[in-house]
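re the bet — no i am not wrong, look at it urself. input seq straight from the record:
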Amino acid sequence: MRPLRLEFCAFGPYENRQVLDFSCLKGQSFFLIHGATGAGKTSVFDAICYALYGEAADESRRPGMLRNREAAPDVPTYVDFIFALREEVWHIRRNPEYTRKAKRGTGTAREMASVILERIKDGEPVERWKNDGEVRRKIYSLIGFECRQFRQVVLLPQGEFRRFLMADTAERKEIMRVLFNTDVYQEMEERLKRKAADLAASYEKIRARQEFFLQDAEMPDIQSLQEAVESCRTETELLRREAGTREELYRKSLQEKEAGRAVSEKFQALEQALRREAKERQQQERDKETKKLWEQAERAAALTDLNAQWERDKANARQKAADLKSLYAKGKQAAADEQKAREIWRGIKDGESGQKQRQEELGHLRSLLGTADSLAESIRAAEQCRREEEASRKQAEALKQMLERGRTEYKACQECIEVLRNKAADAKAVGLRVKTLEQEAETVRRIALLQQEIAGAEEQFRKQKEEAELSRRTWQQADQKLRNMRELAGQAQAALLAGKLAEGDPCPVCGSPHHPRLAQMVGRCLTEEDLEKNQKKTDQYHQHWEELQEKAAAAERAWQEKCAARDALAGSAQEWRPQIDIQNELNVYRRRLQEDQKACAELSEQEARSGRLEKQMEEWENKRSRQQELSRQAAVSAAAAQKSVEEKKSHLPETFWEPDQMRGHIARLEAEIREWEKRSDQAEKRFREAVTCYGNLKGSWSSCLQECRQLSRRAFDSRELFMQRCREAGFLDRNDYERAIAGQWADSSYRASVCRQLEEHAANFQAVQVEIRKARMETEGKVQPDLPALEQAEQHAMAEWKTVHERWAASQERWKKLQKSRKNWQELEEQGGRAAARYAQLADLADLASGKSGSRVSFQTYVLHSLLEDVMEAANQRLLVMSRGQYQLQSGERLNGNKQGGLDMEVFDNYSGYSRPMATLSGGESFLASLSLALGLSDVVQSYAGGTRLDTMFIDEGFGTLDSETLDVALKALFSLQRSGRLIGIISHVEELRSRIPARLEVKKSRSGGSRAEFVIGTTES
C-alpha cells in the first residue's frame, strides 16, 4: 500500500482544507514529517488510519473527537485518500458524525457518518462500496491487516518500544499481550478450565439425579428397583384378570335393570295416556260453546262487504248534500260581486277626458327636455372653469411659498456640510489609534490568562510530582518487603531440607556428610503462591509509579509550554501598561471614532439632501410658471361658458331651468297615465270575470242537485239489501249482527286461530285414544317389575368392579413409574460414563494449558516466548548493523538453564563477550535497540498476516537522543529499507534532521490555532 494523495478538512488540529500530494516527493522514498510539538504531525497518520478503518492511530481517540473544534459550522469534516496497491489504484472517502449548519434555516443538524470506497481505472471509478461493514471487509482483504495490526506495522511509536525494552518480565508480558493480542490464548486456558469444571459439575448433577430417581421410587439401590419392577408387573397382571371378571358381572346386572326399566316405562305410558284422555274430554265440552260463537262470527263476516257498501253510499249522499249547500252560498256571493264590478267599470269610463289633457301636456314637455339638458351642461362647464381658475391660482401661490422655504433649508444644509467635513477628516487617524490599542489590550489579556493557566499548571505539576513521590516510596517499601519474603522463603527451604537430613547423608548444598548446625524454621513457611501474590502487588505499585511519573512529566511539559507562550507574548509587547489604563484610553478613542463615523455618515446624508433640495427647487419653479398660464386660460373659458348659459335660459320657463325638475314632472304625468290605463283594464277584467263566475256556479249547482238525488236513492237500496241478507243469515237486526262480530271476532286471523285450535283439540283426543289402545296391547299379560331391587343389585356389582379396577390402575401406574425410573437411571448411567471420559481428557488439557503439568509453562506464555524469539531474531539483523556489530538481543533464559517460563531480555556485547541488562544501555544505544525491535516487530506482524507487504512505514520520534555519528548510522540503516521499495516517513521535531533528509512534510501551527502542512523538497542547508 503506497499513498498517492491525501486530502482532509476540519480534521484534528487542521481547521481548513489540506491536500498532500505524495507525487511531490519526485521519487524520494524517504521523507521527514517535521514540526513543533502539538502542530499535528501524527494527525497525518491519523487521517490515513481513519480513512481506511474508521479509527484513529491511537485507540484512546474516538472518531467523534477528530473534528476540529474551531471549524465553522458550514465547513465539512472528511478525509479523502487515494493509494496504490500493487497495480491498482483505490480511492476512499470517509467522514465522522458531527454537527453542521442546517441546509435550511439558521439552526444546526447532525451530519451522519459515511464512507465510500472505489477502485479507479483510467481515472474513473469502476467498482464502488458504500456500506461501512463491506468497506472494512474489503480493506482487510486488500491490505491483509486489521486496524490494530496496521497501527503496529505502519506506525512505529518509539516510546512504547523503549518501555518494552526496559520492562521486567511481568510488564513485558503485559506489553506483548497487548501488541500481539494474545488474549485469545489466555481465553483458551480459561475456557478449558471452565469446560472441565462444567463437566465435573455435570457429572455430579447426573449422580444426584440418579439418586433422586432411586429416592422417588423409594428404593435403596438399582437392584431393589429391578426386583420391584418385576414384582409389580406380576401383581398388575393378576388384578387385570380379576377386574375383567367383575366387569362381566356388572354388565349382566346392568342389562337386567335396563329390561325391567323398559317394562315399567310401558305401564307408566298407559297411565299417562288415560290421564290425558280425561283432560281432552273436558276440553271437548268447552269447545262446543266456542264453536257456536265461531260459526256466528263467520256468518257475520260474510256480510261485512254489504255493510261497508251501505256506509259508503250513505257517506257519499251526505257529502254531496253539503257540496250543494256550499254551491248555493257561492252563487249568491258571485251575483253580488258581478253587480259591484259593473258599477266600478262605468265610473272609470267617465274620466277619459282628463286622460287626453295629460297626454297633450306630456308631449309638449318632452319637446323642451333637450334644451333643458343643454342648459344644465353649460352651467356645469361654467362652474368647472371657475373652479379650475381658482385651483391654478392657489397652486401657484403654494409653489411660491414652498420655493422660499426650500431656499432657506438649502442654505442651512450647506452650512452643516461644511461643519461635518471638518469632523470626518479626523476619523482615519482615530481608527488607526483604536486598532493599535485593541491589539495592545488583547496581548495584555492573553498574558493575564496565560499567567492564570501557568499558576494552575504549576499547581497540577506539584500535585502530580507529590503523588509520584508517594507512589515511589510505596513501591520501594513493597519491593523491600518482597526481598525480605524471598530471603525468608530461602531460609524456609533450607530448614525443610535440613529436616530431611540424617547424619552421614551428603548435604545437597555443600555435599558434607556432617551437619553440626542444621537450619531451623523461623515462623511459618512461605509458599510460591505468597511470593507470586506479593510480586504482582509490587509490580502494580511499580506500574502505578511509572504512570504517575508520566503524568507529572506531562504536567511539567504543559507548564513549561505555557511559560514559553507567555514569554513569547511578553517579548512581543514593547512596554506594559495596566490593562485599565489601556481600556480607558481605548474607550475614549472608540467614542471619538463613533462620533467621527457618525459625522461621516451624516455628511453623506447631508450632501445627498443638498442635491435633492437643489433639484426640488428647480422643479417647483417650473411648476409655478405652468400653473400661472393654466389660471389665465381657465378665466377666458369661464366667461364664454357664462354667456352660453344666459342665452339658453331665455328659451325655457323659469320653473323648468333644472332638467331634473322637468323630468320629474314628465315622470309623474307618465305614471298618472299608466295608472289610469291600468285601473281601466283591471276594472273591465274583474267585471267580465264576475259575469263568467256567476254563470259557472249556476250550472254547477244544477248538476250537483241531480247527483245528490241519485246518491240518496243508492244509499236507500244498499240498506235494504244488507237488512235482507242479515235476516237470511239468522240475525234479527243490525244490532244482532254487530254483537256476532264484535271484539276479536272481527279479526279474520283470530277466527282462523280459533278454528285451528278446535281442529287441534279434536285431533289430540283421537291420538290419545289410539295411544291407549297401543299401551294396553303392549302391557297385556305382563307384571310390573321391582325397579329399586334391580338398581341396588346393579350398584353393588358396579362398586365391586370399580374397587378391583382402581387397584389394578394403581398397580399399573406404579409399575410404569418404576419402569420410567429404571429407564432414566440407566440413561443417566450412560451419560455419566461419557461425561467422565470427556472430563478426563479436558482436565488433562486444562492442566497442560495452565502450566500445572508437562513443562509447567502456560499456553499464553509459551506463545509469547516464541513470538519474542522471532521478534529478537528479526531485530538483531538491524541492530548488528546499527551498532557496528557490537550488540545483539537475546533471551534471559539462555543463562537460566531450563527455565522456559520467563520473558527476560538481555543485550549481548560482542566486544566484551558478556551479556548485560538492558538498563545499562545509554540513551542512544537504547534508541537503536528500540528502533531495531520496532522494525523487527513490523516484519514479524507482516509475516503472521500471511506475507502481506506494506510499502509505507512511519517512525515516530526518538532521534533526539542520538549523537551525530550514531544518527548517521541509524539513518543509513533506514535508508537501506528504501531498497525494498518502502516509503519511509520519520515523524520528528529534531532540527538536525531537516539538514539530512531532503524531502520533508513541514507541519506548522498558526497563531489562530489551526495547522497547515506542505511538502518541501531540499535540505535546509541547500
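see?? DSSP finds 19 helices and 17 strands in the chain. told u. also The longest helix spans residues 222-302. so pay up
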